[in-house]
Design brief:
By secondary structure, this protein is mainly alpha-helical. It has three domains: 150 residues, no CATH class; 195 residues, no CATH class; 106 residues, no CATH class. The protein is built from 18 helices and five strands. It has a three-stranded antiparallel sheet, with helices on one face. Strands 1-2 form a two-stranded antiparallel sheet. Helix 8 runs antiparallel to helix 9.
Length: 525
């Protein structure tokens, strides 16, 4: 007997009715998926367009391009002086230096040893501390860590001379930058049109910060040697570097400016403590400080950041691999197989969900920043409450919940805003304190002592006394004796701690004042 060709099991696999039913089920599933995508795409796009129309009716715009500073002629552009120009001299169509050697020379010419940078970035004047020139001179001249230090306690002037000698090779760079500072504009040639917005490179920020470190160190050494005229020139160049990136629409650029201001104020504070600045120099410092408005710059740069991120949402929606784009801004890098999985997974996500991600980003962004900063002041309680509310909403339910509720991208981007307002408030407070300190010294030069109240500075030395950025209240001031005073803001905690700063910067949100004062005794060694 011949064996049967029919299988003894699963006979239904060979029945047409089964395959027809299976095909109908598969077709139904694909139809449902297509309908789901179509509905979600329509829903997401409609919700975003409704929100966009509402914001435009209120005068809001998410166009990043309107915050981009316009191009300027090279011969009128501070950023195009020969020393700075190679930073953005890229191979066309890339963000790679055309002349790698020239770029490395620019970067290497202003680098400092890591220990010197750490010392310069310690507390300094906000904690009533001068630069430790002896330690800095020893670090600059160190080639053998086991060798005894070149300079010991009491040898500040010898250390200052050694520092100036060490910094001498950069004098031609400083001379070039001073000449270039006479140009009317400053615009670094950032590729604002770069396809991937979060991949735009900003190498000039580190260069500016390092030049300011060198100028800070040099000015302090010059003051220690009784050369305030030279120190005044260096401080003036630092002010120009700080303002050279003022128009840039990036939060990081404004944070670098705030850091540079702290560096500028170190030699200013040291010179004021020893009464080394002249009336004319103090008046010039006051004018420079008067033009600084970190609060207004903060409001503008926050809106620019919102527009910047909005342009990225457009990029993500049009990408074939939206999940990979999201991971790129989060710093996640996978292998080729992982990238392929991301790309395939991204195809399953309706494009409408990215409209909803964009909508929720703007809603949460507005929830965090609206009403926190005004031209007259900042309310830390409002800022902290809004920040906590937004972070709590972003954290609720974990990452899976953020995907389903369209907050995944907000979880990546928004936490960077959490400390921005407090840093800008502190920077503006520092500028205000320094401006008043210069006016107080001018008053002392004219009258032989500091005034009883700040009102005595108006109108001869100040057009108006700056108020505390925190809650728009008067700054605190009292004379300590005929040659000293203490001047301070109540700081982020809104509590008068008697002019005592927080022990650490990380503690400033909960206690401590922002203070300008001098040590009880500050003799020059």
């Amino acid at each position: 007997m011949e064996p049967s060709l029919k299988p003894r099991s699963f006979p239904w696999l060979f029945r047409w009715k089964f395959w027809r039913a299976l095909l109908l089920i598969v077709a139904g599933i694909f139809t449902l998926i297509a309908l789901f995508h179509a509905e979600e795409n329509w829903r997401g796009k409609r919700a975003w367009e409704n929100y966009q129309r509402e914001m435009e009716a209120n005068g809001e715009s998410f166009d990043f391009a309107k915050y981009v500073p316009p191009p300027v002629p090279d011969d009128q552009n501070f950023a195009m002086t020969p020393f700075l120009a190679p930073i953005f001299d890229f191979i066309p169509g890339t963000q790679r230096p055309r002349d790698t050697n020239a770029w490395q020379r620019t970067q290497g010419a202003v680098m400092l040893p890591s220990e010197v940078i750490r010392t310069l970035e310690k507390d300094g004047w906000p904690k009533g501390e001068r630069l430790d020139l002896i330690h800095l001179a020893n670090e600059l001249g160190t080639t053998n860590r086991s060798a005894p230090p070149r300079f010991l306690a009491g040898q500040t002037q010898e250390a200052a001379r050694a520092i100036l000698e060490n910094l001498k090779p950069t004098e031609p760079i400083f001379d070039e930058l001073r000449i270039a500072s006479q140009r009317p504009y400053s615009r670094f040639n950032i590729d604002y049109d770069w396809e991937s917005k979060f991949s735009i490179v900003l190498p000039h920020l580190a260069t500016i910060r390092m030049i300011c470190h060198r100028l800070e160190l040099r000015a302090s050494a010059e003051l220690a040697l009784g050369e305030p005229a030279a120190a005044f020139q260096d401080v003036g160049l630092m002010f120009h570097l700080l303002n050279s990136i003022r128009s840039e629409p990036f939060l990081i650029s404004q944070l670098v400016r705030a850091a540079c201001l702290t560096q500028i104020l170190q030699p200013m504070w040291e010179g004021l403590g020893h009464h080394q600045w002249s009336e004319k120099q103090l008046a010039d410092f006051t004018e420079e400080l008067r033009t600084l408005d970190f609060v207004d710059d903060d409001i503008r740069s926050i809106r620019a950041e919102q527009g910047f991120c909005d342009s990225f949402f457009v990029e993500v929606r049009s990408s074939r691999n939206p999940v990979g784009e999201m991971n790129a801004i989060n710093g996640s890098q996978g292998d080729s197989e992982g990238a392929e999985i991301e790309a395939n997974f991204g195809l399953l996500i309706p494009r409408g969900w990215f409209y909803l991600e964009e909508l929720n980003y703007h809603r949460l962004f507005d929830d965090e920043v609206n009403g926190v900063m005004t031209p007259t002041g900042i309310d830390p309680d409002v800022a902290d409450r809004k920040d906590a509310d937004v972070l709590r909403e972003l954290a609720s339910g974990g990452f899976a919940s953020s995907i389903l509720h369209h907050r995944a991208m907000s979880r990546i981007v928004l936490p960077a805003l959490s400390s921005f307002e407090s840093r800008m408030a502190r920077a503006q407070t520092y500028a205000n304190l320094a401006s008043i300190a210069c006016a107080l010294e001018r008053y002392r030069l004219a009258h032989g002592q500091f005034p009883e109240t700040l009102d005595s500075l108006v109108p001869q030395f100040l057009a108006v006394v700056p108020r505390d950025v925190i809650m728009d209240q008067p700054l605190k001031y009292r004379r300590a004796d005929d040659v000293q005073f203490i001047l301070y803001s109540v700081g982020w905690n809104k509590t008068d701690d008697g002019g005592i700063p927080a022990a650490k910067e990380s503690e400033e949100r909960t206690h401590g004042d922002w203070v300008w004062t001098y040590p009880t005794a500050s003799p020059r060694e």
